[in-house]
Write a structure and sequence with these properties.
- By secondary structure, this protein is an alpha/beta fold.
- It folds into three domains: about 1-135 and about 305-325, Rossmann fold, CATH 3.40.50; about 140-300, Dihydrodipicolinate Reductase, domain 2 (2-Layer Sandwich), CATH 3.30.360.10; about 340-425, 2-Layer Sandwich (Alpha-Beta Plaits).
- Helices cover about 35% and strands about 30% of the residues.
- It contains 14 helices and 18 strands.
- It has helices spanning about 15-25, 25-35, 65-70, 85-95, 105-120, 140-145, 160-170, 175-185, 195, 200-215, 235-240, 305-320, 360-370, 400-410, and strands spanning about 5-10, 35-45, 60, 75-80, 100, 125, 150-155, 225, 245-255, 260-270, 280-290, 290-300, 340, 345-355, 375-385, 390-395, 400, 415-425.
- Helix 1 packs across helix 12.
- The chain starts with a strand and ends with a strand.
- Bound molecules: NADP nicotinamide-adenine-dinucleotide phosphate and L-homoserine (HSE).
- NADP nicotinamide-adenine-dinucleotide phosphate binds near residues 43, 79 and 85.
Length: about 425
């Protein structure tokens, strides 16, 4: 019987999930990949820490050299997270002939090109299904099952923490702080939740998805990012009244050899499939020229869902090792499409403004928008307190630069008290 020795880098939430899956179904692996899988080494920071899982003596180590220099170890599963030392370890491991499974979106969104080039030169495999959408298969479907298509759009809820927060704020009237605390207690949020609530985690995942979907290297820095910290219960209530909900979406699209990549809160109609993705669930909507619309839905985080993707990748690699066919998971970014500057992106907008409640106010605001080519679909005075009126404006599709230029001027008008919200709108005709 073929035996494949693997090493884990990291034995935290996901690492322990991988150990649990591999230990629970031990007899299955032989049937599924014609090999016995042995966890030979596990790298951790603190070798004395209590763990949920038990491993034989000598397996846990804090010495990287024991792993990289062991010729029997064929696959390294990196589940430490962060850029360094994960980047160095993965590059060194590839150069030592190891194959890699990783869930590390931080690393791939910033150093994907370097990692894939090294992998290609080493003629080894690098699988990363868990880096986007946790347990949802999306990377491998984009790289294989959907390869016949020119992908026009990839749009998704790819951060469970923010989806949980928005769901709880919208359906249970919780405050942002209360909902965030719950998401942290449930283990969805990153150690520092800033990356979740400011949209960076979603931006990393979108950079990875867009790179694959559009065959062009997209880095974290290319993605326009806005988080959910400014979304208020009032915005959610307005959205609801208008037949919408608010979601943090990662949106990538490709048209005329240009790519749009942006992460920000979006008003989407309640009948849109993404509007019904709630709590910590993730979903990625993909539109291809042959397949049409498809959607991938499931648990975007959590121990066993994420470990499910990791173990799936491990089995794929073992099958390649069995047939001596490693070296085909190389970079698929063979194009160099331009990233559209955010100012050129066209979408619709929901705006909430506080202005003085007096004659001529609407006319002055409409005039600024008119001068910038911003066409309004509706303007409604939604409320009034003391001498201030609340205006809710929905625009037709306009360029981001035109709306931002208009707001710069409106902000300075003597009749303007505050520009309360600016939220982009998807899927409204
Ligand atoms: P975690 O719970 O923080 O675990 C990290 C593990 O890595 C710990 O065991 C830690 O050792 C070890 N480690 C960290 N730095 C190290 C270093 N310099 N040297 C040796 N060991 C080191 O992280 P996680 O939640 O499992 O996430 C792992 C990866 O999966 C990350 O890339 C994350 O983004 C990704 N991911 C996580 C989820 C999720 O639901 N958690 C979902 C999708 C993707 P000690 O235990 O000794 O401290
Ligand atoms: N913090 C992430 C989330 C975990 O909330 O989706 C999965 O990457």
């Amino acid at each position: 019987m073929n035996k494949v020795n693997v090493a884990l880098l990291g034995l935290g939430t996901v690492g322990q999930g991988v150990v649990k899956i591999l230990q629970n179904n031990k007899n299955q692996w032989v049937k599924r990949c014609n090999a016995e899988i042995e966890i030979k080494k596990v790298l951790v920071k603190d070798t004395h820490k209590e763990r949920e899982v038990k491993l034989p003596p000598g397996v846990i180590t804090s010495d990287w050299q024991e792993i990289v220099n062991d010729p029997e170890i064929k696959v390294i599963i990196e589940l430490m997270g962060g850029i360094e030392p994960a980047r160095t370890y993965i590059l060194e491991a590839l150069k030592h002939g190891k194959n890699i499974v990783t869930a590390n979106k931080d690393l791939l969104a910033e150093h994907g090109e370097e990692v894939f080039t090294t992998c290609q030169e080493a003629v080894r495999e690098l699988y990363f299904e868990a880096s986007v959408g946790g347990g949802i298969p999306i990377i491998n479907p984009l790289k294989q099952g959907l390869l016949a298509n020119n992908i026009e759009k990839v749009m998704g809820i790819v951060n469970g923490t923010t989806n949980y927060i928005l769901t709880k704020m919208s359906s249970e009237g919780k405050t942002f702080a209360e909902a965030l605390k719950e998401a942290q207690e449930l283990g969805y949020a990153e150690a520092d939740p800033t990356a979740d609530v400011e949209g960076l985690d979603a931006a990393r995942k979108l950079a990875i998805l867009a790179s694959i979907a559009f065959h062009t290297r997209v880095k974290l820095q290319d993605v326009y990012v806005e988080g959910i910290t400014k979304i208020s219960p009032e915005d959610l209530a307005y959205a609801q009244k208008l037949g919408y909900t608010i979601k943090l979406l990662g949106i990538g699209s490709s048209q005329d050899n240009q790519i749009e990549v942006r992460v920000h809160p979006v008003l989407i109609p309640l009948h849109h499939p993404l509007a019904n993705v709630n709590d910590s669930f993730n979903a990625i909507f993909v539109q291809g020229d042959a397949v049409g619309e498809t959607m991938f839905y499931g648990r975007g985080a959590g121990q066993l869902p994420t470990a499910s993707s990791v173990v799936g990748d491990l089995i794929a690699i073992i099958k390649d090792l069995n047939t001596k066919s490693t070296g085909h998971s190389a970079c698929s970014c063979y194009e160099t499409k331009k990233i559209k500057p955010m100012g050129e992106v066209k979408t619709k907008y929901f705006l909430r403004l506080h202005v003085l409640d007096q004659p001529g106010v609407l006319a002055s605001i409409a005039s600024v928008f008119g001068k910038h080519g911003v066409s309004l679909a509706s303007v409604v005075q939604k409320g009034c307190f003391q001498d201030v009126a609340e205006l809710v404006v929905i625009t037709h599709q306009v360029k981001e630069k035109d709306i931002q230029d208009s707001l710069e001027i409106i902000k300075e008008l003597p009749i303007t008290k505050e520009i309360v919200s600016l939220i982009r709108v998807e899927g409204m005709e």
